[in-house]
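Reviewers of the previous submission asked for a worked example of the structure-prediction workflow described in the proposal, so we include one complete record here. The input consisted solely of the amino acid sequence. No template or homolog information was supplied to the procedure at any stage.
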Amino acid sequence: MPLVVAIVCVSLLAVPVVTTLALQIGTNRLVNETEASLIKQAAIYAGAYAVAFEAEPPEAGGAIPGYYLPPPKRIFWSAASRTFRPLLNLRQDVVEPVRPDPVPTAGRLDPRYLRIAPGLGALADNASRTTLSTVVFLDHQGIDMLAGESASFAAVPEVQQALQGDVGAALRWRGDAGTRLRLAVLGGGTGFRVLVAYPVISHNRVIGAVYMSRTAPGLTEYLAGERSAVIVLAVVTLLSAAVVGTLLVRTMLRPIRALRDQSRMVANGSHSELAPLGHYGMREIADLGEAVITMAGTLSQCSKEIGIYTNHVTHELKSPVTSIMGAAELLEDGDLSDAAQQSLIGTIRAQGERMDLLLHQLRDMTRSREAMRGEPGQLRDMLPEISGLDISLAPPDAILPLSVAHGQTVLAHMAGNARHHGATRLDLDWDGRTLRLSDNGEGFADIDLGRMVEPFFTTRREEGGTGLGLAIVVAILELYGARLTPIAASDGAVFEIEFG
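From that input alone, the workflow returned the following structure tokens.
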């Protein structure tokens, strides 16, 4: 139970964490798309910027201003095509403070920048109506070309990267509200802006930069545009959860509860009321259900056998105990002849031996039921040696599906019973499945045929028989799935042991 509680608590705590992570992954995807879009737009603006700048004649003796690119960067920017990997990662990068305002500077724009600035501004105004992006054109010093007064963005990190010939990018908060509700803003993606600074290259020099920004679309906007798909996904998810829940209840919960109830019935002794369930859901639970019913049947059988054995043992012990008590009372009188006293002592001894034999055979039967099956053995190794009884075997090399020890016990009881009933010959015939035992003794009456294998049934009670010999044989044979059956015969006794 503590483990289950811990798992449930961890699962409950994992839900908001997983949800936030999923929101951040989705928002990060939108950030990357916004960044890629800004880089493409900035490349177009940078191209227009460079063309306009190169079309303007330089001042007398004027050189192309800006950072001169080292060889690796010259190769990159002069390539026929360029690709950019995502520069921003919402789950790893820190969202920077709001974009700082440009810093007033004493620097002045080159006349060529002043001449191309109006055209670039008009281009940005027209394009921004569709792109919804903010564009700032910077010269090689980072000065805003369209500002009323000279102001520079050169101190901004992403602009510094652009003026050194690299594409700079940053995530920045839109305002103070974002810094106060960071988790909610990061989940929605609308509290910050994506900024990209793209270098403008001319004759292997960075003559300026295009500084662009745009707010990444929020997940709510995206999901609103995909409303139908989201609804279908939600419905499918709920239906799937309902189906899985129903299957779990039907295939696991109900059968397990039913097995719990059956186990309680077994514990309460209601073995006879058990029945297989209508369905078990899973093969493993079906196996468990069969095991419960088998266990109940075994317990019921054991309970019945214990009751039967208790009654019979009580009955069998009552007679010798009564005889011993009666003989003891007569001996206490003391007015008996020596012959009478010896007779009573003989009675006590005989009845005591009968009780000892009964208890010994009960112990043997209990051990037989608790024993384990053994490997098949040679039938000739199982034959007992009983005086006055000739045992024949066919075929002589027969292998019986009994262990030698169990086979010896079985055949010893069977041969002993035959000898007690006057037999001088016992024939054993094995056909590969059934062992037939036939003797030339007195046999038994047809009326006793169906009771021969019952515990405590004997036709020699007056001679000291306990009726447990064949019960021990039956107990051993049950370990091997075999059955002992008495067969009606006109001469002697016949038994068959059939193996499954």
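The radius of gyration is 51 Å. We consider this example representative of the routine output the project will generate in years two and three.
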